[in-house]
UniProtKB/TrEMBL annotation:
Nicotinamide binds at F34, I106, D107. NCBIfam families: PRK00481.1-1. Keywords: Cytoplasm, Hydrolase, NAD, Transferase. It comes from Paenibacillus brasilensis. One of its GO terms (molecular function) is hydrolase activity. PROSITE patterns: SIRTUIN. The gene is cobB. The lineage of its organism: Bacteria, Bacillati, Bacillota, Bacilli, Bacillales. It comes from the Bacteria. This is NAD-dependent protein deacetylase.
Length: 247
């Protein structure tokens, strides 16, 4: 049987679906991923430091100008639109089948597509707070700042994006809720992730349900454990599923 048809059948039978995704979920929306051949970490562009260094907490504190220059030019994609993957998952949630999206992404495209229960392991570019007074600022307010390092107009504090940097811990409440969602699922869809970033990647080990499906264009260390492995672009596959299921 065709893999997509088989997966459509599993989705129809499932009562509690959870999606665990990474940067590959948004590549079809024009946002580069990190670790693929065409990803941000493989860029041939001359950078003053490696992306991993520039996206660390210590670097942010020591060199905020360099951090924000890189962050603004490489991490922000305000014009990106949800693709077939985001739209299909939102539809599944609307119909009561999908209970949670657990994502490593910070782009907010799941919410833009209509998903409600989105657990953002690595935070979001859409939430920003002054490091002095804690005031909230939107992505538009950060992007419209005339300064490279956005400052709070009230007290001059640096406005930091609520994005988990290297050397920072993940939000414990988000982690707990993600573990609960995955452990209660009967169908786990994993998509667009290299499964190399921890502790996020380790969350899939909490799955105790019936079927695991992996949708990824590049090989991962988890391929042999998946009940179905699909290597086509995830947005394309989700679009096919939407047609088959009438969603």
């Amino acid at each position: 049987m065709d893999k997509v048809k088989m997966l459509a059948g599993w989705i129809q039978d499932a009562q509690n679906i959870v999606f665990f995704g990474g940067a590959g979920t948004s590549t079809e929306s024009g946002i580069p991923d990190f670790r693929s051949a065409a990803g941000l970490y493989q860029s041939e562009e001359k950078l003053p430091y490696s992306p991993e260094v520039m996206l660390s907490r210590s670097f942010f504190v020591k060199h905020p100008e360099v951090f924000f220059d890189f962050y603004r030019s490489k991490m922000l994609h305000p014009d990106a639109e949800p693709n077939g993957c985001h739209r299909f998952l939102a539809s599944l949630e609307h119909h009561g089948r999908l209970k949670a999206v657990v994502t490593q992404n910070i782009d907010g495209l799941h919410q833009a597509a209509g998903s409600v229960n989105v657990l953002e392991l690595h935070g979001s570019v859409h939430r920003n707070h002054c490091m002095k007074c804690g005031r909230f600022y939107s992505l538009n307010e950060v992007m419209s700042s005339s300064e490279i390092v956005p400052k709070c107009p009230v007290d001059g504090g640096i406005i930091k994006p609520d994005v988990v940097l290297y050397e920072e811990e993940l939000n414990q409440d988000t982690l707990i809720r993600s573990v609960q969602a995955i452990s209660q699922a009967d169908l786990l869809l994993i998509g667009g992730t290299s499964l190399t970033v921890h502790p996020a990647a380790g969350l899939i080990t909490y799955f105790r349900g019936k079927h695991t499906v992996l949708l990824n264009t590049d090989p991962t260390s988890y391929d042999h454990k998946a009940d179905i492995l699909i290597t086509e672009p995830i947005g394309k596959v989700m679009g096919q599923l939407a047609e088959q299921l009438g969603l």
